[in-house]
């Protein structure tokens, strides 16, 4: 089998991504290009992603991102073997831009098209940095849009959701708490930085869904967000200063405590010895530190892709496409449509 060039297109939220991966004859993957154009700046004043603004930005950014990716990889479109695209989950209008572009390229070039799952892409991307995944592993996906615990028994074939958030995503909680603390959007990075100066044990914020009778691997962060807002409100009403760094650190500790505890518990229960943490929140310094500590204690190998690969990008879709091609998976039909609620 000669080398194959796989193109990946991502447009599920506010990042327009085009990634290019070389699939070697031995099954190895090499990242050749990873062009990402974000419309984040256009959403900042709204404090969250505005779907219509995101769709329009994808339309404007897609063709230039494709041009830059091909140039960086030093290839032309005829060199492409297959085209992978995020078919869901995500914002409907945003997904449609990527899916339409991928279908157009696939039809014009007469190349196989693979509509893939965004969440599986977040796991697959790790293979670009750390090599093949073991036969079975666990993945914790934490971003502004998702919080999922997945059992991966074949990246191209079998992914089972063990649990997910029943309300806010972990990143969403960071963004909402940042707003309460008058910190900029997105809230993860400033809370992460401020927490380093605060005491994580200063305030005992609630750990959602950790009771004996609660769904074992589901998450809940909206009660935590409300608890933080109430705590700050009471302080302000009493005319007392708000110890912002302590609040940030205590909130963060509650989030990462639950995430890591449930991930390690799931790894033990399903007898897997590798945990992958991916998604924008994986960039959190306390999350990776506590996960490293708890994984080491439990004899679990922790894999966290570099931040650039953790956030939404086209490389993760190209990587997943490459795994599908390597596995001999059947391509998608050319009338593929976007599915905003696509399950893993
Ligand atoms: O994966 P991502 O770039 O986009 C999607 O939501 O799909 O994730 C963005 C989320 C935001 O909610 C942001 O606040 C959070 O990731 N985030 C962080 C950190 N950096 C980004 N959360 C905690 N700590 C960070 N260092
Ligand atoms: Zn994502």
From TrEMBL:
<dbReference type="InterPro" id="IPR043129">
    <property type="entry name" value="ATPase_NBD"/>
</dbReference>
<keyword id="KW-0819">tRNA processing</keyword>
<dbReference type="InterPro" id="IPR022450">
    <property type="entry name" value="TsaD"/>
</dbReference>
<feature type="binding site">
    <location>
        <position position="188"/>
    </location>
    <ligand>
        <name>substrate</name>
    </ligand>
</feature>
<dbReference type="InterPro" id="IPR017861">
    <property type="entry name" value="KAE1/TsaD"/>
</dbReference>
<feature type="domain" description="Gcp-like">
    <location>
        <begin position="30"/>
        <end position="318"/>
    </location>
</feature>
<feature type="binding site">
    <location>
        <position position="192"/>
    </location>
    <ligand>
        <name>substrate</name>
    </ligand>
</feature>
<dbReference type="GO" id="GO:0005737">
    <property type="term" value="C:cytoplasm"/>
</dbReference>
<keyword id="KW-0808">Transferase</keyword>
<keyword id="KW-0408">Iron</keyword>
<keyword id="KW-0963">Cytoplasm</keyword>
<feature type="binding site">
    <location>
        <position position="312"/>
    </location>
    <ligand>
        <name>Fe cation</name>
    </ligand>
</feature>
<dbReference type="InterPro" id="IPR017860">
    <property type="entry name" value="Peptidase_M22_CS"/>
</dbReference>
<feature type="binding site">
    <location>
        <position position="175"/>
    </location>
    <ligand>
        <name>substrate</name>
    </ligand>
</feature>
<dbReference type="InterPro" id="IPR000905">
    <property type="entry name" value="Gcp-like_dom"/>
</dbReference>
<keyword id="KW-0479">Metal-binding</keyword>
<protein>
    <recommendedName>
        <fullName>tRNA N6-adenosine threonylcarbamoyltransferase</fullName>
        <ecNumber>2.3.1.234</ecNumber>
    </recommendedName>
</protein>
<dbReference type="GO" id="GO:0061711">
    <property type="term" value="F:tRNA N(6)-L-threonylcarbamoyladenine synthase activity"/>
</dbReference>
<comment type="function">
    <text>Required for the formation of a threonylcarbamoyl group on adenosine at position 37 (t(6)A37) in tRNAs that read codons beginning with adenine. Is involved in the transfer of the threonylcarbamoyl moiety of threonylcarbamoyl-AMP (TC-AMP) to the N6 group of A37, together with TsaE and TsaB. TsaD likely plays a direct catalytic role in this reaction.</text>
</comment>
<keyword id="KW-0012">Acyltransferase</keyword>
<dbReference type="GO" id="GO:0005506">
    <property type="term" value="F:iron ion binding"/>
</dbReference>
<feature type="binding site">
    <location>
        <begin position="141"/>
        <end position="145"/>
    </location>
    <ligand>
        <name>substrate</name>
    </ligand>
</feature>
<feature type="binding site">
    <location>
        <position position="122"/>
    </location>
    <ligand>
        <name>Fe cation</name>
    </ligand>
</feature>
<feature type="binding site">
    <location>
        <position position="284"/>
    </location>
    <ligand>
        <name>substrate</name>
    </ligand>
</feature>
<feature type="binding site">
    <location>
        <position position="118"/>
    </location>
    <ligand>
        <name>Fe cation</name>
    </ligand>
</feature>
<dbReference type="Pfam" id="PF00814">
    <property type="entry name" value="TsaD"/>
</dbReference>
<dbReference type="GO" id="GO:0002949">
    <property type="term" value="P:tRNA threonylcarbamoyladenosine modification"/>
</dbReference>
<comment type="similarity">
    <text>Belongs to the KAE1 / TsaD family.</text>
</comment>
């Amino acid at each position: 089998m000669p080398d194959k060039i796989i193109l990946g297109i991502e447009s599920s939220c506010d990042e327009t991504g085009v990634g290019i991966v070389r699939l070697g004859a031995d099954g190895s993957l090499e990242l050749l290009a990873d062009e990402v154009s974000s419309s984040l700046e256009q959403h900042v004043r709204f404090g969250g992603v505005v779907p219509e603004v995101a769709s329009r930005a994808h339309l404007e950014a897609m063709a230039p991102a494709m041009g830059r990716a091909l140039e960086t990889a030093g290839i032309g479109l005829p060199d492409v073997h297959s085209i992978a695209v995020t078919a869901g989950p995500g914002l409907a209008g945003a997904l449609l831009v990527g899916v339409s572009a991928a279908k157009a390229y696939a039809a014009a070039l007469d190349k196989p098209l693979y509509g893939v799952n965004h969440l599986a892409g977040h796991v697959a991307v790790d293979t670009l940095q750390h090599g093949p995944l073991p036969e079975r592993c666990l993945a914790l996906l934490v971003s502004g849009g998702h919080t999922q615990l997945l059992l991966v028994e074949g990246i191209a074939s079998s992914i089972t959701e063990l649990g997910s958030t029943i309300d806010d995503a972990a990143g969403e909680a960071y963004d909402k708490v940042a707003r309460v603390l008058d910190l900029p959007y997105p809230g993860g990075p400033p809370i992460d930085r401020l927490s380093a100066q605060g005491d994580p044990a200063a305030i005992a914020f609630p750990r959602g869904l950790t009771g004996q009778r609660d769904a074992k691997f589901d998450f809940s962060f909206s009660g935590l967000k409300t608890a933080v807002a109430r705590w700050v409100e009471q302080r302000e009403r009493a005319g007392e200063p708000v110890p912002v760094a302590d609040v940030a650190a205590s909130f963060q500790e509650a989030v990462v405590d639950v995430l890591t505890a449930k991930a390690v518990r799931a790894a033990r229960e399903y007898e897997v010895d590798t945990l992958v943490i991916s998604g924008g929140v994986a960039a959190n310094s306390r999350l990776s530190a506590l996960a490293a500590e708890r994984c080491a204690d439990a004899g679990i190998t922790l894999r966290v892709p570099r931040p650039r690969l953790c956030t939404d990008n086209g490389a993760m879709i190209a990587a997943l496409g490459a795994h599908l091609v390597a596995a001999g998976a059947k391509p998608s039909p050319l009338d593929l449509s976007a599915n905003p609620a696509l399950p893993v």
